[in-house]
Every structure is written in C-alpha cells, then in structure tokens.
Amino acid sequence: MAVVHRRTCFLMLFAIWGVLVSLSFPVSATLDTATTAVPVSDTMPGTISENALHDFENAIFLNPQQTYRKLVTLAQSNDFSDEGKVWLLLRKAQTESVLTLYKEMDATLATVATFTNVMTNEQNALWLYLKGSRMHQTGDISGAIDTLKYAVEVAKEEPNSTIYVLAIRELGYGFALSGDYYRATLILQDAYKNLVILNNPFFNGLLEESLGDTYNYLGNYTKAIEYYEGALTFFESIGYQPHVASTLLGLAMVNRKLENWNDALSYFDRYEIALNFTNNHSENFYLHYGRAMTMAERGECNAAIGAIDDALGLSGPIDYNAELYKKRALCNLTLDNLAEAKQDLSKARTIFNGIEALHNTQWHLELDYIAGLVAFKDNRFEQAFEFIHRYYKDFLELQRLNNSEYVTQVQATMEAERKDKEIALLKQQTQLQAATAREQSLKVRQKNMMLVGVVVIFALLLIFVVFQYKNSRKLLALSIRDDLTGLHNRRYFFDYFEHNLVKLNPSHVGLALISFDIDNFKHINDNLGHHVGDEVIKTVAHTAANTLRTNDVIARIGGDEFIIALPRTTLLQAKEIAKRILENIRSHRFTTKEGADFSVTASLGVAYHHQNKLIALDVKSMMESADTALYQSKRAGKNRFTVAA
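Given the sequence above, the corresponding structure tokens read:
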C-alpha cells in the first residue's frame, strides 16, 4: 500500500510540474481528431491511382454507388500491378458488400482467391474479413467466427487500421449471434479500450454499434439504445450513410422488442430514407422484415402475414427467414390456420437444424414454445405440456448462463472503459483550454491562472482515479492469466469448472478433459536454454488453443503442463480434437537464433464423462483419469493420446 501512495504522489507532483511548465511556453500545435480521407480527386469521377486504393474506405462509405461504377470500369482494364489488382478487386468486393450486391460479391471474392500467393498481409486480412462477413449472411456462423479470428490475427500487426476494427467488430457480432455474449463483450471492450485514444469517430461508431448489437441480444434493450444512439451520432458526423442506415435499423429493432411500436415504425421510416444511398440496390429485405415483425407483434396478423410473405420473397439471410416463419406460425395460430402453422414451424425447424451455431440459443429454444402452442391447438395436451415445460427449463438455463458473474464482470469493466474515454477527451479539452489561456494578455493572466488551478485539481483527481482503476485491472488480469502464454491459469480453470462445467444440463452430450504436456521438455531446457523452452511453451499453447472450438477452455497449470475442457462434446469429437492437437504440434518447426532446427511432440490423456442422471460428475476423478491416461501415453512411447477407461 505504501508503494501505491508513493507512486500516486509522484504522479500528482509530475502533473503539477507539467501544468506549470505549460503555462510558461506557448503551444502552437493542435490535436487532429479527423479521420483520414481520400483526396477529393479520388472520390469524384475520373481515374483512381493504384496507391489511392490502399486507403479507400472513405470513398466507399461516402459515395458507394459512384465509387462502384468507377471500380467496375477499372476492373476491366489491365493497368495495375498484381498488388494493385488485388486492392482493386478487394475494394470492389467491399463496395458490393455495402450495396448488398451479394452475387457480384461472391464472384469477386472467388477471383481474389486466385491471387492468394501474391497478397500482402493487409490484403489477406481484408479478404478474410469480407469472407467472414459473407459467411454471416449465409448462416455459416461457426465458419464465419473461425475465418474472422484468423482475419484479426493477421490484421492485428496494424491495430490502428480500419481493417482490424472492421474484423474485430464482425467477430464480436459473430460471438453474440452464437450466444457467446461473454466473449463478444470481452473482445469489443478490449478493442474499445485500445482504440479510444485515437478519437476516430468511424472506429468509435463501429464499436458502439457492435456493443449495441451485443446488448440487444442479451435483452438489455435500454443499454442497446444508448450505444446505438452514440454510434448514430458518430456516423452522422462523418456522413457515412451505409452505417447511418444500419444503426437506424438497430434502433428500430430494439424499439420493436420494447413494444414501442410507433417509435419502431418511425425508425423504419428513417431507415428507408437512409437507404437512398443505394439507389436500386437497397436492403429492402431488412425493411420488409422489420415492418412485418412489428405488425405481427402488434397483433395485426392479417396484415402481418402478407408483409411476411413479401419479405420471404426477397433475398435475405436464412436465419432471418426462420424468424419470419416462426412469426407467421404464431399469426396462423391466432387466425386458427393450424395446418399452415404446422408448415411454418417445420420450415423454421429445418433452417435451425442446419445452423449448428444457433443450437440452444434463444431463437432455437422458441421453436419448442411454438410447438407447444401448435400441439395445444391440435388437442395434444400432453405433448403441449412437454414442449412448453422444456422451453421454460432450457430458457431459464440460458438466462442463468447469460447472466453469470463472468458476463456481468466484463460488462461492468466495459462501462468503466467507456468512462475512461470521456476522461481522455476531457483531458484533451483541458490541454486546449490551457494553450488558449497562455496566449491571453497579461491583463487577464491572473484570472486564467485561477481557472488553471481548478483544472489541475480536477485533472489530479482524474489521474488518481484512473491510476487506481488500472492498477485493479492489472491485479485482476494477473489473477486469472498465465504471464508466459496468455492462457488462463490454474485458478481460473477450476473456478470456471466449478461455476459452469459441473452444472451442465443432463440433456447435453457430455464433457471431456484433455491433460497434456510436452515430451522431453527438460532436454530442451538443458540443451538449448530456458529462453528456447519458454518459446516452445508459448508456441505449443497457442497451437493447441487455435485448434479448439469456440466454447472450449484451455489453461496452463504449471511448467509444460496444460489442461483442456471440452463441454457439450462426444467422445468421438474429443478424440478428433486430441488427434488434431498432436498433429499441429509435431508439424511445427522451431528455429533458434543459434541455428538449431527442431520439432517437439506431446503426450495427451483424455477423460470422458457422459452427462446423464445416473452418474454424478466427479471433477477430481476426471482429472486423475486424464493424468493417468497421460502417463500411459508416455509409457507407450509418447507422441500419442490415450483415452482413460
């Protein structure tokens, strides 16, 4: 505690010294908070230089139709190098995404794929982002998440780039869509914290819109509206109409869920006007979808069924079509159209069965509720009770998971980081006021000095609060993270196990634990040095983590020992994951600064528990079984996995 006080006092003295010095010297520089724009000549009709394509988002978002016509014309020429041609095709695909020209976008991305061998890292990141975004639109949510994770990894070498922010935003959206609100909130909060100091309105708008989406899916509609309105302010300030339109759509959807019907329809009207930027390529599906769902939830079923039919006649995401079928089924039940309701329910169930990432989400669970209403209408009362009972049981379990202490903790952290942004902007304003005060005449200097004194005291209080907050954040990170690998540590793993895995619903498939370590690791440390050993541990940790699925958990529990939890899995899936981990580890080649070239292997032990009501989950026994199987792998020659009896 004494150390904290000494450091705090030092910061306070340093701040006072800085303010006094700033009063003694004039400051001519000003803060540039504007976004980087493409030169006017490159956003107007005419030619586009190869270099201009690198920083071309501004033209795409300000004048998408005009820009697209120029890009189509340029794509027919052969005046570019290979790198320039890749940029041209990528910007064309990006503009097609903005204009919702999905068939053209698919064709363009297919052409880009033929240039993968000449792509730069930045181009590869943009290509992966566009692919992942397109996968979301086609309902391949798991594939989109995997692709976007790779895009973020490639793009993070330049974390201040628009590509990195777009990829992070889309990845957070994917996690939220799949029901993983914890990871969605965490990744968006981290991005917000790292990028807020840039004061870039486009970046801030993207992240606030994504946080609005996350809170929308969590059911916290008041907080969602707050973030959507913040994003709308940012996008309107820079004139990016595609993003203004998407944010207005979000506000319309949230007000619909709050049953603010008039406000919802008003936002849909504003959304329709905002779509003028697309001319003939508007996102009419989302407009028809939103209005149809609003009519249905308002109880206007006769009008709603016709509106739903119109929306289904357009090209929209398949998961949105499932929601339309669900809503039409409810309307048909209201109108006593039992046969039609059964058909709609069957169509919705078929769509959800084909999208694994949406299984056990709120949207999927609602099928049981509708099935219960259909069975009741059909006089199958026992089946109706079973469907409704299962719906409420699974829904309450989902709500419990969504409101776990981890999600709550991350949300609270995110709100604190948002306040950090306001503090940072306030400090900038204070600096500008001080610069103005130093240029005042001697006649008013005494008055300005009094004002600066008040500002200094306020700034010191802010510094103290920020310092204390950051210190607590560091302590929290140290308590759950392994310093070397960045993975979760032993403490976090067992806490997570206690709060989540041991409470798995008995209807789920099962749980697997994988215990593994690096073969002959002591030999590496003794012969190549501990610094090489540390690099091996980090590489093996990241290789194993990248092999896992979205909901799997990996932790380093000491030395070269790791533990993995695979919830909701079958034994066959667990074996396949163990096999891939072995293959990925042994296929990696290490090269030291001294020229040594080598590879490593690992030994794995797998323990499996099938979830049912007859056998209780015994954490200690599973851990012991996994460790025993690991030692069996060692005795059998290493570089293999063994499944515990």
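Residues 205 and 234 are 5 Å apart (CA to CA). Try to locate this feature in the token string yourself.
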